[in-house]
Design a protein that fits this description.
By secondary structure, the chain is α/β, with parallel strands linked by helices. The protein has nine helices and 14 strands.
Length: 294
């Protein structure tokens, strides 16, 4: 058999494998947190855009939420302002919040929108402030190394409520929402919110079929570094207790669990370094990460 015939047959097999998933997820909402290497590597960015356009083309409703921490730090450095983190959270004064809004709501958001549109999609960029979509409360916390000290993080927030009406309208009109994780407070003030958290809350409020969190790791790994392809709450609790899940993976897994517990059918922690990771997770039997289910 010639190489071209073999290639054609492989393509047919791929499409055949994808068909049941296209049928299953037609009309369903899939919320994707876009971040990590997938957001900075040029080829991976184009792969992601094509994946999202294809999902919309076959009848799914992808909703993209993006981060931008490294890009925020880069611009702060360029303007001579030092980034300050306490217990992994960026302290965000008013001047820093202006930079955050410029980077998340402006630069990054419009780059993603343009990329999706360049590949044939109809993306619309939003922040959580548009239509008061994401109402936020200011967060404060006790310092881990000094529990008696209350930290003022400034304009750092947590999601108080989500109004899904703007996203629902865009979905019905064949648009792809691209959302920056900025919320609005009771007095109109802006808050920077963790993008994983925003994606999780949106997935819950929209009644999404899937929540996908793109990361820079293969997924959740055991102590020997082997990928754990499927986890439920009991598994996760045991892995947290024995220290297997810790640091940056802990909030991602908790976000995934919370989404599933609140009605999202499944959550996926996906290796965003893999080309076309989103399509592989949605349309193939094997996937490229860790499935978190109830």
């Amino acid at each position: 058999m010639s190489t071209s015939n073999c290639s054609s047959r492989q393509k047919a097999e791929v499409l055949t494998e994808a068909l049941p998933y296209m049928q299953q997820f037609q009309g369903k909402t899939i919320v994707i947190k876009f971040g990590g290497n997938a957001m900075v590597d040029e080829q991976l960015k184009h792969d992601f855009a094509r994946d999202v356009v294809l999902m919309k083309q076959v009848g799914m409703n992808p909703v993209v939420v993006h981060g931008g921490g490294p890009q925020i730090s880069g611009l702060l450095e360029r303007v001579g302002k030092e980034s300050t983190f306490i217990d992994g959270i960026r302290v965000t004064d008013s001047e820093t919040m202006d930079i955050v809004e410029m980077v998340l709501g402006g630069l990054i958001n419009k780059q993603i929108v343009s990329l999706i549109n360049a590949h044939g999609g109809k993306a619309v960029g939003l922040s959580g402030k548009d239509g008061a979509m994401i109402r936020a409360n200011k967060i404060s916390a006790k310092r881990k190394d000094a529990p008696s000290e209350i930290i003022d993080y400034g304009h750092v927030g947590e999601v108080a409520s989500v109004d899904p009406s703007v996203v629902a309208i865009l979905d019905k009109q064949a648009f792809i929402p691209v959302i920056a994780p900025i919320g609005v407070g009771a007095k109109g003030e802006s808050y920077n919110i963790n993008a994983d958290t925003v994606a999780g809350k949106l997935a819950i409020t929209l009644g999404a079929e899937k929540l996908m969190l793109l990361t820079n790791t293969p997924g959740v790994l055991d102590k020997q570094g082997k990928l754990l392809t499927g986890l439920n709450r009991t598994d996760v609790n045991a892995l947290i207790e024995d220290g297997t899940i810790q640091d940056g993976m802990l909030p991602k897994v908790q976000c995934a669990l919370d989404a599933v517990a609140s009605g999202v059918t499944s959550s996926h922690i996906v290796d965003g370094r893999v080309p076309h990771a989103v399509l592989l997770e949605v349309f193939t039997d094997s996937g490229v990460g860790t499935l978190v289910h109830g």
